[in-house]
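Example 3.2
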Amino acid sequence: MYIAKGKEYNTIERHVNAPLFKRIFDCKTNEISTIKITAVGLYRLFLNGKELNKSWFAPYLSNPDEIVFYDEYDVIGQLKPKNNVLCVLLGNGFVNNNDFNIWQNETATYRSAPKFDLQFKIGDETVFESDEEFLVADSPITFDDFRCGERYDANLEIENVLESTSLENFGKPLIVAPPKGEIIKNSAQPVVAAGERSAVAIKKTETGYIYDFGVNDTGIPCLEINAQKGQKIDLYFAETVGGNGVDVRSISFAQSNPEYVQHDVYICKNGLQKYKPSFTWHGCRYAEVRGISAEQATKALLRFIPVHSAIGKICRFQCDNETINKLVEITLRSDKSNFIFYPYDCPHREKNGWTADAAISAEQMLYTFDAYESLRQWLLCIRKAQRKDGALPGIIPTAGWGFTFGNGPAWDSVLIELPYQLYRFYGKSEIVTENAAAIEKYFKYIEIKFNADGLVEIGLGDWCQTYTHAEGDYETPVEVTDSLTMISLAGKTAEMFEKVGLKAEKIKNFGKVLRENFRKKYVVDESLTVQTQTALAMCLQLNIFTAKEEKKAYAQLLENIRRQGNHFRVGVIGYRYLFETLAKHGDQNLCFHLIAQNSFPSYGYILGQGATTLWESFEEYERKEGELQRKDGVKRIPSFNHHFWGGVLAWIYRYIGWLDIKSEDTIEISPTMIEGVNRAEIEYSRNGKSVAISWRRTNEKLQLKVNSLGFKCILKHGGKTILPNGDSRFEFTIK
């Protein structure tokens, strides 16, 4: 039974306090006892003053019209015979956030005040559930929005409320309708804290004090202050600073509305006090604190607690090139800080599960993190979001936005790319069979959408191109990237279907027909008519050309790169194809140069600009009058924390670390010399298997050491050698 405090919910203009529910009960203490709970919104669960939440935020975010996840807690040993105090604090979460006509959340059919359902069980018997025996009161949280922030008035606190049996100021809840979605147990990794940061510098401004935490990250603030009653403290969070404070331009879509930024408010009581928000998190490097005195502005006043899903790190890499080491570091930070429940696009202004971002990053994320359970659960949400005709939205979960903008094959590819990569790394057939019907439905949808040329042109193209352009003005036509993406997806689908015993002939034929249609239109006189780096690299990687055409196309690709001053000129679709194409044609050194050089655009450039996470797009910046400005004059500044340019990490692991993961039990090691790197080490472990690869170049000698336990390791050097378990050592002469 779902209960709520009332029917009112937040708007930008009107704020409703987060409700606190409470129940006092007696029970047996020596038997197996559990609490099952879910919420539409977010919850914090307390028993006798102690928080039970496994995850910093719960439950797993979803569209409650489609699916709702519940958590289960074992509470044996935490109960008393008499006067147990059970409390539930509710936040608005995804279902009651204060968007105003951006992603249509304000008109969502599920929009409501937060509500929850709970059962307390001893053994298999339900002793009680959420009903009118629970009582409810306003909490000190006067406003909460998981994008905009939280406001807390410490003077509204009820003393010892989580442990006291007093029910003063508590009233009856409202029995409300349950959500429409299927109720399923949560199996994803929880959101956890990852240490704590103190400010590396504090700067006085006209309006307050800026706390610099050294790196861009995702987390929550921890405020500790000795204050007098009524002192109001405003906390603003941002990725950059301007002339007079933090710069919120990269974190706001609604620059005319000052409420739509990362802004926490704390109203003090008397004495020493601590505060951490309950139902929001922030993406930032800087926090501007307003309303404090010079004496209060110490490092101890404010700390930052990074949070992300508990996707354990399973790969470690290091080499003797500091540019590459730094790039790996900021990529990993981008991956973790953009993974709360599922991969999303940025930790501040959106927090949306953009499908392309996850599809593009899937390989490199699975190289580095054990994210199987979280991604498997998100795939369930993706299947639930798919329409009957097979269409997918650009963001998941969604209130309905993203079917007419923000999607298309490169974005929809998440439905195929995630199972493909998960099966490759884990070898579990369930991940393919669970998604097979949805994948087949999607291919039928695309077939219906074929244009007059028998090609595909839907939605977004080569997004965030590395040159000045108007939004949607793609150098590589959408028809090209969409059609080639579908050819790639057909090949991957057929491959994984066959491996698990599913029929793949229709998918193979789909890819064959599309390839023929593409060649008919775009390959003329043995040459590709679209001479962009993205188009050429995609065609080369996907075997669109004949052998004669391929040689010509690769020469054209190299010439294009030369004309760009030896820089890449691609978007987030094209760059992975470009890097892999260059490497597979033996031009690893050129690819390394494109990545590591200091001039714009490159990864080396953003590192030189002080990047501590990957940027949403490669842009040139300069400081004017203390503010960061784009050289192209565009006022809106993109996010400085996106993960979809992180596919470079897979390239680094493969061509510098020499770790090429072919399947859940097979690894290939291909020695590749790159000028600028003379030593590298990589360690990878999963499911009880591990491999450590280290190599060193000295003069004309190469020393290689491999320690493998459980993996089939194949050394590719002058043939193929299957390495035994344990240590293997080699020395080669470099030609």
